[in-house]
């Protein structure tokens, strides 16, 4: 990246970090069960929520407990279960149409990041009916309170239940981009481990590694705070202790509960401290090829951390020591390399590939340009890279 652009990016990030204490960040209020969520709906005078989920969750019957709890409160509901991975504008508009047609008054997002992202933008379209989704892209383009939004995470990884971000794919251009606004933070997050017990091992692994990426990128960036560092350390420690357990035994209640907490903490960390180029690249791969976000993040993470090299040794080394991944007396460089080795071992032990298939050389410049546009100047990364430099990473992870 040329020096002038570097100076602009770092200046932008500096002032954003200075502004962190006065920005209206908030954390959703945690609820312990879907029954509490149903009671809350009734207590707040809601009569007909829209449940937003995906076909896989629906087929597994994971929403049944929520549906029964809503009925027991004497409420009715509408059900949208057509959320696709990397949710599209068309998907959002279909759910929004159902909300309005059925006279819904609240939204319950049930599932992983895709369901939550879809639900958030449905809410945004409800309060901003004259603003198309394409014009919500970027920062603070909504600025209106959404209908009551309750998030029920099932994947213990995306952290979307805590964040101000939603990522939407334009189905026509295949461009995947984030929408960021404080109003998108859910009002409540239901951390009910029971809804995660039936998740397949592959979903457990990739979403769990997604949570790890959130914690890592928040920690090694230049916009950390005491609070976000503590959240990132807790999340990383919990992933280190419990992700493989949850993968090996999906009925391990303690591991499932701890992974939900890990995802929540990681989400709280990156909501304030942001992510980095791992996400920028993963989003572009999701938009272009439909690569699941957690899978892309898991594969890219060790390569990008290696690429950062000495630029992230101090912070990554500290995270590795604080989370128990590396020995307490290991040097920054040694602890960082131990951390990267551990990430690779985790991926391998959970059958996550070390490369991504299907990346075409001719698509790389366009995807790198999208990653550059998304990431710079917003993401406070350890080392700044432009589109040409980011293109190298696509070649590295190319199968």
Q: What spatial form do the alpha-carbon principal axes imply?
A: globular
Number of strands: 9
Integer average pLDDT:
95
Number of helices: 15
Q: How much beta, percentage-wise?
A: 5-15%
The largest beta-sheet arranges its strands as 1-9-6-4-2-3
Low-confidence stretches: none
Major sheet = 6 strands, parallel
Which H/E pattern describes the elements? Answer: HEHEHHEHEHEEEEEHHHHHHHHH
Q: In words, what does this structure look like?
A:
The chain has 399 residues and is an alpha/beta fold. Helix content is 54%, strand content 10%. The protein contains 15 helices and nine strands. A six-stranded parallel beta sheet has the order 1-9-6-4-2-3, with helices on both faces. Strands 5-8-7 form a three-stranded mixed beta sheet. A hairpin with a 4-residue loop joins strand 7 (165-170) and strand 8 (175-180). Helix 5 (89-101) packs across helix 6 (113-127), helix 7 (201-220) packs parallel to helix 9 and helix 10 (277-289) runs antiparallel to helix 11 (293-308). The longest helix has 23 residues, at 226-248.
Reconstruct the topology from this structure.
Blueprint: H1 3-19, E1 29-31, H2 34-43, E2 49-52, H3 55-60, H4 64-72, E3 78-80, H5 89-101, E4 106-111, H6 113-127, E5 138-139, E6 149-153, E7 165-170, E8 175-180, E9 188-190, H7 201-220, H8 226-248, H9 253-273, H10 277-289, H11 293-308, H12 313-322, H13 332-349, H14 364-375, H15 387-397
Parallel strand pairs: 1-9, 2-3, 2-4, 4-6, 5-8, 6-9
Antiparallel strand pairs: 7-8
